[in-house]
């Protein structure tokens, strides 16, 4: 009786307003995706390669007849290679670059003494081979990655360098990485950053890593390519990139005010008028998180950080006088508002809350273009980046909707600068570690405590979607239950922890 009395005067108007807001956000996201889709098609058909748009000349080898013998290796710019932990040390030391023109700086702020010992011994091993490698440690993790990079900049030998290449622990570049990136910076003084693409070595490890590959491939193949090709702003990915040190310093250096120090730096450098270049055909091997717990923490940081940065920089961007109004609109509206806020919020709010609620309130109708056509088009446009996984499209949609709950929560925390806004949990990546520890043998099935797997938020949303699906199947006319039942099942599967590789705490 209470529901019947409140439905028409209260619930219906509120739900209609929410539907209108969600449709407006869907239209924004649709327009953004279609725009980028058109641009990427034009780039693929008629676009010029980076070597045609910017000056690029390889550095001559000492044995070349055209090389100046007196210059020796001085023709090569001085480089600093900043990284964290052990996996990429060997790749850094194997780069095709004169050893007297590069400083490899290993930044370690880990709290595990065993890790410190392993990394230090690895650095000493390479140092004994004549590699100019510096092992720098911190006794605290203040500022997290930004703090480590900021401390690394304080050493006197950094002043000898012109550029800095930044790689995280699990990134392993090919030997020709520097010879393909540095010429763009050397011959084009307006370029501050050259960003490479990520290649995932463990994408086939489980279904969850395949889903991640689909999302990240779209980011690199479409979003980054469009930003670079149109000379618009695009963000630094925090790793697999080379910065001009003068641009980095002019932008104010590393700041730890948010958990996305890479994006923070890129925005500040963009506001100074610097240009960025993305090389889509230059791929750097790295690893995806393969446990659901690690992926949730990563997505929290990647969603909360941009929203928090938007809160802190929106007025600074508007007041900037060095860039055009069109670039300001692009950064504020397209880059931040639509891609970093609307995309997360509308996915969860519309498809997991509002649309199911309309089943219970038949007075509120969602037009077919908003419920079917727009989401279908957006989904297809998102999937073009990974054609090998098109047969997994349905699973990807359901998984992304589950993750949108965590992204929406993180986005709100970032906008409000609530308790977990500056939380940083290192993303655990397994690689072949489990295989190595087990000596190549299949590990015994672990005994799992039920509390390690249960996620109440996912179970709660799954129950809500299941109830709505049952009501629609019994009384409804829109046949939304075709979507609601699979989506509720996806939330239930996530709620009991059957996603990704499971590693017990012991």
From TrEMBL:
Gene3D superfamilies: Spore Coat Polysaccharide Biosynthesis Protein SpsA, Chain A. Keywords: Cell wall biogenesis/degradation, Glycosyltransferase, Golgi apparatus, Membrane, Transferase, Transmembrane, Transmembrane helix. Residues 163-357 form the Glycosyltransferase 2-like domain. One of its GO terms (biological process) is cell wall organization. The chain crosses the membrane at residues 17-46, 341-361, 373-399, 454-474, 480-503. The keyword tRNA-binding does not apply. GO terms for cellular component: Golgi membrane. Its main location: Golgi. It is a multi-pass membrane protein. Its EC number is 2.4.1.32. InterPro entries: Glyco_trans_2-like, Nucleotide-diphossugar_trans. It is found in: Golgi apparatus membrane. It catalyses: GDP-mannose + (glucomannan)n = GDP + (glucomannan)n+1. GO terms for molecular function: glucomannan 4-beta-mannosyltransferase activity; mannan synthase activity. Belongs to the glycosyltransferase 2 family. Plant cellulose synthase-like A subfamily. This is glucomannan 4-beta-mannosyltransferase. It comes from Senna tora. The lineage of its organism: Eukaryota, Viridiplantae, Streptophyta, Embryophyta, Tracheophyta.
């Amino acid at each position: 009786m209470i529901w019947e009395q409140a439905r028409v005067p209260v619930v219906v108007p509120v739900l209609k307003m929410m539907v209108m807001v969600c449709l407006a956000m869907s239209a924004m996201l649709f327009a953004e995706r279609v725009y980028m889709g058109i641009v990427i098609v034009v780039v693929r058909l008629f676009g010029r390669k980076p070597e045609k748009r910017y000056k690029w000349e390889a550095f001559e080898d000492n044995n070349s007849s055209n090389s100046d013998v007196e210059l020796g290796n001085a023709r090569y710019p001085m480089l600093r290679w900043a990284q964290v932990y052990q996996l990429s040390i060997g790749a850094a030391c194997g780069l095709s670059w004169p050893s007297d023109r590069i400083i490899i700086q290993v930044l370690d702020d880990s709290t595990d003494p065993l890790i410190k010992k392993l990394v230090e011994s690895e650095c000493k091993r390479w140092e004994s081979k004549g590699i100019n490698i510096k092992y720098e440690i911190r006794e605290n993790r203040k500022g997290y990655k930004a703090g480590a990079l900021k401390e690394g900049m304080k050493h006197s030998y950094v002043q000898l360098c012109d550029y800095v290449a930044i790689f995280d622990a699990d990134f392993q570049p090919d030997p020709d990485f520097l010879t393909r990136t540095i010429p763009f910076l050397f011959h084009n003084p307006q370029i501050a950053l050259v960003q490479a693409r990520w290649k995932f070595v463990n994408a086939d490890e489980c279904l969850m890593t395949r889903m991640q590959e689909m999302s990240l491939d779209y980011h690199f193949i479409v979003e980054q390519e469009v930003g670079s090709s149109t000379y618009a702003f695009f963000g630094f990915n925090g790793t697999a990139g080379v910065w001009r040190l003068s641009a980095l310093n002019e932008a104010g250096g590393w700041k730890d005010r948010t958990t996305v120090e890479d994006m923070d730096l890129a925005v500040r450098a963009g506001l100074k008028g610097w240009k960025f270049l993305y090389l889509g055909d230059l791929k750097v091997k790295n690893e995806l998180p393969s446990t659901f717990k690690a992926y949730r923490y990563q997505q929290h940081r990647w969603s909360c950080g941009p929203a928090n940065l938007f809160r802190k920089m929106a007025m600074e961007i508007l007041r900037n006088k060095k860039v055009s109004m069109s670039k300001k609109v692009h950064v504020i509206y397209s880059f931040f508002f639509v891609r970093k806020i609307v995309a997360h919020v509308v996915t969860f709010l519309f498809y997991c809350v509002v649309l199911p609620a309309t089943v219970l309130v038949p007075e509120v109708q969602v037009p077919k273009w908003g419920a079917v056509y727009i989401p279908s088009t957006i989904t297809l446009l998102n999937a073009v980046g990974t054609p090998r996984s098109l047969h997994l499209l349905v699973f990807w949609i359901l998984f992304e909707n589950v993750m949108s709950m965590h992204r929406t929560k993180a986005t709100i925390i970032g906008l409000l600068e609530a308790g977990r806004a500056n939380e940083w949990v290192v993303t655990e990546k397994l690689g072949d570690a489990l295989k190595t520890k087990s000596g190549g043998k299949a590990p015994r099935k672990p005994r799992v405590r039920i509390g390690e797997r249960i996620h109440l938020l996912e179970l709660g949303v799954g129950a809500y979607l299941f109830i709505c699906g049952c009501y629609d199947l019994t009384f409804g006319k829109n046949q939304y239950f075709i979507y609601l039942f699979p989506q509720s099942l996806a939330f239930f599967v996530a709620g009991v922890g059957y996603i990704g590789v499971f590693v017990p705490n012991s």
